[in-house]
Amino acid sequence: MDKSLSIDTGHHEKLYQERMNFLLTGEKDRVCSIYIDVTDNKMLAIITRKHKYNYNELNNISVRCWLDKYIYPNISDGYNLEEFKKGFTRKALLEEFEKGERNIQFYHSYYDENGNLKLYKVRVSLIENPYNGHIEAYAVWKDRTLKYIDKEISKILYNNDYIGIGIIDSCKGNLYMRAAHFEGMEVDEQKSYVYDDIVKQMSEIRIANESKEQFLKCTALDYLNDNMNIAGVYSFNVYNIKNKVERYSYHWFDKKKGIILVVIEDMTKELETDSVTGALNREGFVHKAENIIKNNPDKDFALLYFNIQKFKAINDLYGYAAGDTVLHQAVNILQISFLKPLAISRIEADRFVVLVDKNNLDFEKLTSILHRVYDKDGMKVDIYVRCGIYYIPKDTDLSVSDMCDRAKLAKLYIPNQYVQPYAIFNEDMKYDYEQRSLALIQLDDAIKNSEIKVFYQPIYDAKTKQIASAEALVRWVSPKGVILPGKFIPALEESGHITKLDTYVHKSVRRFMENRYKNGKKIVRVAVNLSRMDLMDGEIMDLIIDDVKDEHYSKQMVNYEVTESAYANVSGKGTNFLKQLHDNGVKLLIDDFGSGMSSFSTLRDYNFDVIKLDMGFVQKLGENKKYNNIVMSIIELAHRLDMKVVAEGVETKEQADYLKEYGCDYLQGFYFSKPLPEEEFAKLLD
């Protein structure tokens, strides 16, 4: 023991006790504390979580021996070990004290007694013992593992989420970047920039072409200030050149001084993920599929569009939670299927798109995954899915959105989803769809520009071969060519726009007939077609009734043809309308009789004057006795009900002769006349 200590043992004991108390009052994260005499290189005290040793027990233990036995073997990092060994020697500590340093810190990774990797912080405090002049030190090991992990996680999250953080001085037009992780741009975080210069540079280097205009507009200082003054917080999203979504958010840092905080975040995952299923949303799918196709020019890909049938019924019967489960299952089934999808998206509602390697398509297996049973509380529901397929050509200029549209279009051309629930896109589908779509987009302009023409097909008396009446038909003569009725009429019926067309035809026929009637020229009844939508539309029904009741309007002018599909589900108002027409002397015709399932109930429930025999029967006359007998029976039935019969689609003399022999009243078809423009029909009547 040192002489000075023997001179005044009481003082030393007091000092030692103070040091021990200090060591004992450590924080929770303190792992170990040592108290050493640096001058004599002796251990004076050691306190660990499990043990406490005083200097009487440590007389024969040097600092180096203790470190060699308990510390150095467990330091996991060679660099940390060398740094610690170099800095924790007697010589190094004394030199630091001479320099005036009183606190020194070390960090090292360490394996604890359980083999767990830890990060320890070692804080060394140097003091001079006033009783003997020796330099002494406290060395305290603290566990900083969790704080280190938290710090690193924060750093990782910070780097991933925040592309940049900056301060905008909107008054002076300056920008100070607090953090900047911009690919392709070097931004000094210690430097002030002219705001407009940085915005222009970012637009040219970082922002995708489709987002440049939006980016420049939304980042303009005037635009920003206007929005901030009203809303207080402002944000917008753009795509960068890597097809990633960036969100720019602006907050007032100091409103009085016009200082704005801007935060730039990578929002790609959040904004391109469907919140219900976890699959990609439409935007996410488009960008991922574009990258896959672009980066693999030699591969053959296919895009599949899936639509769950009658999905709304599942929501209505079992609730939205069950509906979400079905959507989740759909994604899971596709994900683990033989298709090995490269990208899956819930593109909308109950519709999904999948990008696959074309070689993975197996149509027999595809059919098997397009039907499954959903079991909910013992109730089982058959779920049917339709699929449209688009084979992606190499070097195509089409966007992924256009490819999705083509696959979706193919789905519409599935003839029987229970037999073959998929269809492959071809260009005929596109042409047909464009023709149908033109009707919806350009109908008003077509009527205004007189592109819609009313044609008249004469109907002849079977006995006299004289013109008895006619049917008004429409042709669309557009600048791009004639659009056939079969292309645009169904589209108009499905959309409800057919009423607008039927109103136009009604007015055109009435005008033509009134002019001939007033000029004393020959007229015959003309039949105008009424669709299912007409019998639900009060406006056209009121128009026709007003015209029929007009005393200047001849009741002999116009008949009305109603298809079986129109009156099969006719409303009460529609039924009353037909009755009013009949009561006012207007003749009603059943069009396409025999093509549906409710023909005879229609004869029972409605008062029609004429049956128009479906051309399907007419064209098979003479093929066998069965067809002939059906036609004879219909004609006989009609006559027993005081109704006349018109045979449609008569194309040969043999058909005309058969029908005349069976007692058919009127004949219509190309054998007698094709549909004629108004001028030619007028000449024929004259």
From TrEMBL:
UniProt xrefs under InterPro entries: Cyclic-di-GMP_PDE-like, EAL_dom, EAL_sf, GGDEF_dom, Nucleotide_cyclase, Rev_trsase/Diguanyl_cyclase
SMART domains the record matches = EAL, GGDEF
Query: SUPFAM superfamilies, alphabetically?
Result: EAL domain-like, Nucleotide cyclase
Pfam families assigned to the protein according to its UniProt record, in alphabetical order: EAL, GGDEF
Q: Where does the record place the EAL domain?
A: 436-686
> GGDEF domain spans which residues?
299-427
Checking CDD domains in the record gives: EAL (cd01948), GGDEF (cd01949)
Q: Which domain of life is it from?
A: Bacteria
State the protein's name.
Bifunctional diguanylate cyclase/phosphodiesterase
